[in-house]
Amino acid sequence: MKPKIILPIILFTMIFFVLYFAYPLNGIPAASRTNHFTSDSLINKDESTMKTMNLTEEEWKQRLTPEQYSVLREKGTERPFTGLYWDNHEQGTYKCAACGSELFSSDTKFDSGCGWPSFYDVSSSSAIELKKDSSFGMIRFEVICKKCGSHLGHVFDDGPQPTHLRYCINSASLDFKKEEKKHNP
Ligand code: FE
User: Fold this and answer.
1) What is the 8 CA–ligand 1 centroid distance (Å)?
2) What separation in Å is there between the alpha carbon of 80 and the centre of ligand 1?
3) Distance between CA atoms of 92 and 154, rounded to whole angstroms?
4) Fewer CB near the last or first residue (10 Å), C or N of the chain?
5) Is 145 among the catalytic positions?
6) Same domain for 140 and 173?
7) CA-CA distance, 36 to 57, in Å (whole number)?
8) What residues form DSSP beta bridges with 184?
9) pTM value surpassing 0.85
């Protein structure tokens, strides 16, 4: 092969790999994708810190509906625009459907248009853990309930201010408690 041809091939290959790693399949540049995950402590490094509820899979099946079990325990994803809460605009608190741990407030819920309940922040950073998820050819961060180890959804860095995060959570993973209206005497 002539050197004239080899040089463009090498250059093209290098450019391809640089672009591929900078812009993976989900279209979010790796550099900016991790910029907003400032709470590095959220990323789980030790599996033993989770799953304080040591239920067997059989016990989980008895506690949860088949859809909840599929999402929470088998990391399933409900179809967009089908869940109970993607279009819920009521004030209240979203708890883990598996263990009741408080996860999100309606104050941080926003309409992302993705078809799943979306929040720009968690109620408490101690309520969840993040785990790098490389499935389906994408690099994402899985959101896990810290108390029971159940799968909730994923978090992306294309959310609104002030966090720029979008916690994209399955309705099946959540249990909504409507805020009681305060009555004036
Ligand atoms: Fe939980």
Assistant:
1) 54
2) 22
3) 21
4) C
5) no
6) yes
7) 35
8) none
9) no
Q: Show the domain range for 111.
A: 39-178
Report CA(93)–ligand 1 centroid distance (Å): 14
State how far the Cα of 180 lies from the Cα of 182, in Å rounded to an integer: 6
- Total number of domains in the chain: 2
Q: Which residues contact 154 (CB under 8 A, 6 or more apart)?
A: 133, 140, 141, 142, 143, 168
Helix (DSSP H) and strand (DSSP E) numbers for the chain: 4, 9
**Residues 140, 68: Cα–Cα separation, whole Å:** 22
d(CA 86, CA 88): 6
Q: Kindly state whether residues 72 and 153 are assigned to the same domain.
A: yes
Catalytic residue among 96, 145, 148, 168: 168
Q: Is residue 129 part of a domain?
A: yes
In this predicted model, what pLDDT tens digit does every residue of 149-177 receive, in sequence order? 999 999 999 999 999 999 999 999 999 99
Residue 173 C-alpha to ligand 1 middle, in angstroms? Answer: 8
